[in-house]
Write a structure and sequence with these properties.
This protein is of the alpha/beta class. It has seven helices and six strands; from the N terminus they run H-E-E-E-E-H-E-H-E-H-H-H-H. It has a single domain, classed as 2-Layer Sandwich (Nucleotidyltransferase, domain 5). About 3% of the residues have low confidence.
Length: 226
């Protein structure tokens, strides 16, 4: 079984993404979105569920391991928990915001605490995370190019609010013709296929909450704000 799982991870890391149900594999990346005069460079952290194409994105004024973890902590993991679906694995490139020694790296530590496996793209071939590359092109053409032309943004929050509206339209109202969507929206695909994830998660362990510890989600959110 370990050999089969390793073979799957190798295929995915070389661009041959295998996905079986919602939460089986997510793809995350860093994307330079543009510049706001009063802030400087703006970076987007996107995440796409590879089975349903449900997408999330959050904007930051920097790129590092902490904001990469914050994206999962603030947007992604709460969604999967709300849907009672476990996120099993994430595919990223080999950027320093995603890779490092676990004990000194916020993103690696966060994945370990949340029990999410990590696959990496082939060395010097970040384009093998193709689902993110396609999403970058879509969001650049349909959102950023239009938004920066029509509106003068003065804060990250303004841009994030408009991005959230676009993402809602993308996830809930826009039909997709991908392999598992069959003309449905990403969100409808997710809802219709949740049972596949539930059937695969019969061996899920109960979560034990320790009364005198701070949850990794709370600690990550506090660190990012500071």
């Amino acid at each position: 079984m370990r050999a089969l799982e390793k073979a799957k991870q190798e295929k995915e890391a070389h661009g041959e993404i295998e996905t079986a149900h919602p939460g089986y594999l997510g793809a995350q990346d860093t994307y330079f979105a543009g510049t706001i005069k009063s802030i400087g460079r703006i970076y987007q952290q996107p995440f796409i569920d590879t089975y349903t194409k449900v997408a999330f994105a959050k904007l930051y004024d920097r790129k590092n391991a902490l904001v990469a973890a914050d994206m999962l902590n603030d947007r992604v993991l709460p969604f999967f928990e709300e849907q009672d679906v476990s996120l099993l694995r994430i595919l990223t490139d080999r950027g320093t915001e995603y890779c490092g020694q676990r004990e000194h790296h916020e993103y690696q530590l966060y994945l370990a605490v949340e029990n999410v496996d990590h696959s990496r793209t082939k060395t010097k071939h970040p384009q093998t995370n193709g689902i993110c590359e396609r999403f970058h092109k879509t969001i650049q053409d349909e959102f950023y190019s239009v938004a920066f032309r029509k509106k003068l943004y003065s804060s990250l929050e303004q841009l994030q609010a408009d991005l959230d509206s676009w993402l809602q339209e993308y996830n809930e109202h826009r039909p997709h013709s991908d392999k598992y969507c069959f003309g449905k929206t990403p969100m409808q695909t997710f809802l219709d296929s949740r049972h596949l994830a539930h059937e695969k998660q019969l061996d899920r362990l109960a979560v034990v909450t320790l009364p005198d510890t701070i949850s990794p989600r709370t600690a990550c959110a506090a660190a990012t704000v500071s």
